[in-house]
Design goal:
The chain is an alpha/beta fold. It folds into 2 domains: 5-195, P-loop containing nucleotide triphosphate hydrolases (Rossmann fold, 3-Layer(aba) Sandwich), CATH 3.40.50; 202-314, CobW-like, C-terminal domain (Hypothetical Protein Yjia, Chain: A,domain 2, 2-Layer Sandwich). The protein is built from 11 helices and 15 strands. The strands form 2 sheets. The protein has a 9-stranded mixed beta sheet with strand order 3-4-5-2-6-1-7-8-9, with helices on both faces. A hairpin with a 2-residue loop joins strand 10 and strand 11. The longest helix is centred in the C-terminal third of the chain and has 15 residues, at 236-250. It is globular and about 60 Å long.
Length: 318
């Protein structure tokens, strides 16, 4: 497959600092030509003097980047950007504060043409440290943004007492143990490493899953994070069917599913990921001769019923 354009999705609830963080990325990485997709063009705060041309809804900027608004279907916009692929090196997408990032991520996994040209690198969520606890109680999209993130940036750390910030970050990190946690003031952090997360690479998923304990079960407000471990092999056909039906019926309640699968008659670990109703099964590393073979799954969602899930998963074992 040809070299694909890496894609970074920036999410976070209203007022968390997404636009400030986006501008920090652009200013810190002057050697990278960015294409930027904004849900609402007015949010980005780009100086009109930077705009040097407009073509088919895509704005050319004097700093070497291009920018466009998401005022139509995302896949349609991506097809337009494919035609201009030699003009940029990295695609940044800033969602609105009330958007579910999984619906944006799904476009890079479900559409074959898009997959040929773009590689989803990671999802970064800006968290308003001052207001996140209150926001999680009343907003349904905020838990989805946190549960789906690969990096959680706890912004405005200077506005919160250190011990309070520690409690907040610990509680939320337990809900999404896959996510890297960073604290920031005015979203001012080193951004270059965050453009090379490769979060959807099977090898990275495998590394992170290994360290998740099967006793990992956490509830915070209505967000649930549950770990499952099985030392019997799965019947892959049964498991795929169950997950397909589960995501079809409960995809709005399940924010993220990832894990390592021990499959009957398979010498390699199978790395599993789910984005909305799309599932990804990839070959991981080979099981070691003295390595314990077991499946490890993590499911993050909204008030999930662990007893029911475990029962259904056990029915998929050989």
């Amino acid at each position: 497959m040809q070299n694909r354009i890496p894609v970074t999705i920036i999410t976070g609830f209203l007022g968390a600092g997404k636009t400030t963080f986006l501008n920090n990325i652009i200013s810190q990485n002057k050697d990278i030509r960015f294409a930027i997709i904004e849900n609402e063009f007015g949010e980005i705060g780009i100086d009109n003097e930077l705009i040097i041309g407009i073509d088919d809804g895509i704005f050319e900027l004097s700093n070497g980047c291009i920018c466009c608004t998401l005022n139509s279907e995302l896949t349609e916009l991506l097809v337009k950007l494919i035609d201009r692929q030699d003009e940029y090196d990295h695609l940044l997408i800033e969602t609105t504060g009330i958007a579910d990032p999984s619906s944006v991520a799904a476009a890079f996994i479900s559409d074959y043409e898009v997959q040929q040209h773009f590689q989803l690198d990671g999802i970064i969520c800006l968290v308003d440290s001052m207001n996140v606890e209150a926001t999680l109680k009343v907003e349904t999209k905020a838990p989805q943004q946190i549960g789906f993130a690969d990096v959680l940036i706890f912004n405005k750390k200077d506005k919160v007492e250190p011990n309070q910030l520690q409690t907040i970050t610990t509680n939320i990190q337990q809900l999404n143990p896959y996510a890297q946690v960073i604290e920031a003031e005015q979203a001012n952090i080193e951004t270059s490493p965050l453009l090379k997360l490769k979060a959807y690479e099977p090898s990275n998923v495998e590394k992170k899953t290994v360290y998740i304990s099967h006793n990992h079960d956490h509830q915070h407000e209505h967000i649930t994070s549950q770990a499952y471990s099985f030392d019997q092999p799965f019947d892959l056909l049964k498991l795929r069917h169950f997950i397909k039906v589960l995501l079809l019926l409960q995809s709005m309640r399940i924010y993220r599913m990832k894990g390592i699968l021990y499959i009957k008659n398979e010498d390699y670990k199978i790395i599993f990921q789910a984005v909305q109703q799309q599932t990804i099964f990839s070959k991981g590393s080979k099981w070691g001769s003295d390595e314990k073979r077991e499946s490890k799954l993590l499911i993050i969602g909204n008030n999930l019923n662990k007893t029911m899930f475990e029962k259904k998963l056990r029915q998929c074992l050989v």
